[in-house]
Amino acid sequence: MARVLITGSTDGLGLMAARLLAHDGHDVTLHARNDTRAGDARDALPEAEAVLIGDLTTIEGMRSVAAQAGRTARYDAIIHNAAVGYREPRRIETADGLAHVFAVNVLAPYLLTALITPPDRLVYLSSGMHRGGDTGLDDLQWTARPWDGSRAYADSKLLDVVLAFAVARRWPDVLSNALEPGWVPTKMGGPGAPDDLSQGPVTQAWLAVSQDPEATVTGGYFHHRKPCFVHPAARSPELQDGLLDACAKLTGVSLPSHAA
Predict the structure, then answer these.
(1) Is there a contact between 169 and 66 (Cβ–Cβ < 8 Å)?
(2) Is 226 marked active-site?
(3) How confident is the model over 167-203, as pLDDT tens digits?
(4) 3-class SS at 79?
(5) What 8-state DSSP symbol labels residue 199?
(6) Are 62 and 70 in contact (CB under 8 A)?
(7) From 157, 187, 221, 226, active-site residue
């Protein structure tokens, strides 16, 4: 059985994936942004091994979550599920002066990846909207462009795939993949989302623990446990290295060249 950490797992797809994994006997660690939400998570999944607490809108909070993870035994898999959606009507700035969508959706998984002892598997949640993302890295914080919440979200989800593929290239001994769960009726997706909610958490849980040959790959992009079309730019080493460099400058932490 595997030890799995899932970020952003107090509700929605994160909690649903946690329930799937716990039901199959895996040791699941949840993550909540504050004490209140941590209590909700413990009530929702009493069999969870632990709940890490930290606000992923700030670099300090990201570091705190990584430090808590480091005080436990090594995880076999980490699912980077935490995210904010596309409905922000204006640019929200974090305490670090960053765009809220970028901080949570991109910088948090980057910094957690860089700071937590590498597991055997890394899983990054993206979206079909990533195919409309902008490949430019010159305005990651949306200070030069007029704000567009939908485009900012699409950009962030493209960068999640870029990050997954960058890690796959740099750390060949770690299985690093990305996926789109579909447009499902969660709090983020909205009640009118047309896809099957029951299928939303399946692929990430499968990529985290399955021994199926189709799941034990790296540098893949999936939907409903099948490879699917990904933005071609995500496979560009130049774009990957550019994103890693940008995140390293913002955090002061570089992604190690090799998995320890």
Answers:
(1) no
(2) no
(3) 999 999 999 999 999 765 566 666 665 565 678 899 9
(4) strand
(5) G
(6) no
(7) 157
pLDDT tens profile 27-67: 999 999 999 999 999 999 999 999 999 999 999 999 999 99
* Residue the block writes with tokens 């991109």: 106
Q: Which residue from 168, 31, 36 is spatially nearest to 104, judged by alpha carbons?
A: 31
Pairing of strands 121-125, 50-53: unpaired
Catalytic residue among 153, 187, 221, 226: 153
Q: Name residue 124's beta-bridge partners.
A: 80, 178
CA distance 212 to 216: 6
Identify whether the C-beta of residue 186 lies closer than 8 Å to the C-beta of residue 200: yes
Please name which of 102, 100, 85, 99 lies closest in space to residue 150, comparing C-alpha atoms. Answer: 85
Please report, for residues 31, 93, 259, the alpha-carbon distance to residue 252 in angstroms, rounded to integers and kept in the order given.
24, 19, 18
Give yes or no: 157 in active site: yes
Q: How confident is the model at residue 86 (pLDDT cuts 50, 70, 90)?
A: confident
CA-angle at 216, arms to 212 and 220, nearest 5°: 120
- Mean of pLDDT over the chain: 95
Which run of H or E residues covers position 32?
strand 27-32
pTM above 0.85, yes or no: yes
Amino acid at 123: V
